[in-house]
Amino acid sequence: MSAILSLQNVSKSFGALTVTDDVTFEVPRGQALGIIGPNGAGKSTLFNLITGNLAPDSGHISYDGRDVTRVPPMQRCLSGIGRSFQIPQPFDRLTVFENLLVSATHGRGRSEHEVEQDCAAVLERTELIKVANRASGTLTLLQRKRLELARAMATRPKLLLLDEIAGGLTEGECVALVDTIRAIHAEGVTIIWIEHVLHALNRVVERLLVLDFGRIIGIGEPDEIMASREVREIYLGIEV
Amino acid sequence: MAGYTVTTRTRASQIAAAFALVLLIVAILLPAFASRSLIQDLFFILTMLTLAQYWNLLAGYGGLVSVGQQAFVGFGAYSLFGGAILWGLNPIAGLLLAGVAALIIAVPTAFFAFRLQGAYFAIGTWVVAEVVRLSVAQWKAVGGGTGTSLPRDARDAMWGAEWIEIAFDTRSSAARDILAYWLALLLAVATIGGIYWFLRTKRGLALAALRDNVEAARSVGVDSERMKWVVFLVAAFGTGIAGGLIFLQNGRISPDSAFSVIDWTAFVIFIVVIGGIGTIEGPILGVLIFFGLQTLLADFGSWYLMVLGGLGIVVMLFAPGGLWGLLSDRTGLRLFPIQRRLERRATIEENSDG
């Protein structure tokens, strides 16, 4: 299986603080990879490096067989990298439908007319169709999280980055969201998902990556990773 | 699946469109029966409205809070005067020159100012405006620091003025006011119409997305840099024409009046902020309130500015969306519909059957 995304010796520092420390890993096409780690481990920074919102100090990032280390976020989006933000960032004064229109037209380089039905379809599968004409600033947390997912989906991503999309949701809300994500994954979309809600993550991902102080301290099968001593000590705080 | 349609029209917008058309016709015919002072007041309102719409496009949509728009007003106006004095250019054609000249200095200004963020951008644009003012004050041909008047033959040569003089049987100075008023009306309508058209396109939608959240807009493929350039250059062009027109009507220009940060930026910001930033309706409401206050407080000297400042602060604190924001939030009223609403085709068919 060819890798859709590969990071080679990627490092990023903010002043004296190294937030991404010599990170190397690959994500095979079609896989769902979970990323866990304590707060401040550099998970979101890693996403920003992949989407191009941040430039690495050293190392290389390639996507779909192409070096994208210096490619701006806009072009990365056009080539199929979609993301959701940890704290939902809707276009507040636009409606839910318009939020999707922006991402479908600009993220895919299409006209509004070409993507209208598509956007409606994404709203249906993310259960947002009922609030399609509501200003997105008025949505509930679950709806905002769904909008993050829907807006990313509207760009028709090949690689979908989800940043703590299940955080703050109730049990029932979480289950419904996970079902939607599973369905998206089943269509062949590669997913990288940062999440603290491990049971949600474990229902989707095939591989787990553990980050601590910007370093990868484990990557592999979820069961294997969760059983490893180092992970249990650092991440779960269990003394072994 | 499928079976959805998208519409922007609302009932209020259709009524507003009809009303606007009537208003426009009245405005065009107004000089036939209105007093000269009313025409002058309306000229002032229309030019301030135009400046406010461009500043709103910049700051309200593009996130570019410029306090240096007087650079474009002043340089545009001076170009018109320079063209008339040096080359004998007809002032009406000079209006186009004013826009182009403003556009030309906007390019290096943008190169410089786009490197700055937030408050630094604002200060940077102000610095540029001061530099332009000081440079123009050295230009002896247009009167240096003391300024100059529009030459008499240039004034008399204004296209259309003679026709108005005969048609309305009026003095030539009043005829020039009428001409300036019509041009201001044309400029304001073209500005509002142009912005409205743009906001209904896919790029306009992206601009509204940028207004709400820059980072998210970039992550879904919006080219924020290009959008900033487009908005900045368009605003400079329009602001330059408005500047040319204001001083064409005035007949006299000086660096202090043409590059006044109070007149061409502070008042404009006030109009946009109290009216409602980030909407087309906001500046329209804002300019009416501004004009009302100015008339009301004309005799109170510097108290007038303090009242404006105080009111601006109160609105910013308690109604960040401005008075139009307050109104449209309560009533859902929108005069310029740009919102795309998704509707199920089936329900529309039911409606049209009945």
Q: What structural class should be given to the helix and strand makeup of chain A?
A: alpha/beta
Rg of chain A, nearest Å: 18 Å
The proportion of residues forming helix of chain A, as a percent range, comes to 25-40%
SS field, number of helical segments of chain A: 9
Oligomer type: heterodimer
Poorly predicted regions of chain A: none
- What integer is the average pLDDT of chain B? 91
CATH topology of the largest domain in chain A, by name, is Rossmann fold
Subcellular location (chain B): Cell membrane
Keywords (chain B): Cell membrane, Membrane, Transmembrane, Transmembrane helix
Membrane topology (chain B): Multi-pass membrane protein
Pfam family, one (chain B): BPD_transp_2
What does the model show?
Chain A: InterPro entries: AAA+_ATPase, ABC_AA/LPS_Transport, ABC_transporter-like_ATP-bd, P-loop_NTPase. Chain A: Keywords: ATP-binding, Hydrolase, Nucleotide-binding, Transport. The complex is a heterodimer of chains A (240) and B (354). With 240 residues, chain A is of the alpha/beta class. Chain A has helices at residues 43-51, 73-78, 96-108, 112-125, 141-153, 171-186, 198-202, 222-227, 229-234, and strands at 3-14, 17-28, 32-36, 58-63, 66-67, 81-83, 159-163, 190-194, 207-212, 215-220. Chain A folds into two domains: 1-80 and 157-240, Rossmann fold, CATH 3.40.50.300; 89-154, no CATH class. Chain A contains nine helices and ten strands. The longest helix of chain A has 16 residues, at 171-186. Chain A is globular. In chain B, the strands form two sheets. Chain B has a two-stranded antiparallel ribbon. In chain B, strands 2-3 form a two-stranded antiparallel sheet. Chain B is globular, with a radius of gyration of 21 Å. Chain B has one domain. Chain B has helices at residues 11-29, 36-61, 70-87, 91-113, 118-136, 152-156, 161-167, 172-199, 202-212, 214-219, 224-250, 255-258, 261-275, 281-296, 302-318, 322-331, 345-353, and strands at 4-7, 148-149, 252-253, 341-344. Chain A binds chain B through residues 51, 53, 73-74, 77-78, 82-83, 85, 89-95, 97-99, 101-103, 105-109, 111-112, 116-117, 119-121, 123-124, 132-133, 151-152, 154-155, and chain B through 1-2, 4, 6, 202, 205-206, 208-209, 211-213, 215-224, 278, 339-342.
